[in-house]
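Data card: per-record layout.
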Amino acid sequence: MAATNPIRGGETRTEPRNQKITTFLWFDNNAEEAANFYTSVFKNSRILTKAPYPEGAPGPKGSVMIVDFELDGQPFTALNGGPHFKFTEAISLVVHCNTQEEVDYYWEKLTADGGQESQCGWLKDKYGLSWQIVPEELLKVWSEGDSAKAERVMRAMMSMKKLIIKDLEAAAAG
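The structure for this 174-residue chain is written out next.
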């Protein structure tokens, strides 16, 4: 089944969706702006399609209703749905990082222009979406089975906003 996109010059998508589960994000009226921002932050990311509001829909006819995009190959859909629903911390997107440079990059980009730092590697971006910027080393420590080490790392993490790998490693070492 082909999908036609009148906003992007009639581009079509003829292949079926491979992913059956897609994260769906509800925005007030800035879904396209948010999708453009997110695709600028993450490598290997792109806008796939945009669909306009049709006549008789709750949004202005012809304005962007839905944006399909990928962040490093992971599919997302953003909707301009109006002010009825807001993001909460009950749902967050986790970014797994291998280095402090990656942690710093994502932290800086996602807290810029009105984003807010939280605790334990959590933040909200300027659109109110919650993210966790997590070093893989942290997850490895918790899965090793050393409860004393895991407890030390947990205490260190609880005292941080942005996670600092060298401080987590120092806590792990005792």
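Known properties of this structure: Confidence is low (pLDDT under 50) at residues 1-14. The radius of gyration is 19 Å.

See the next section for split statistics.
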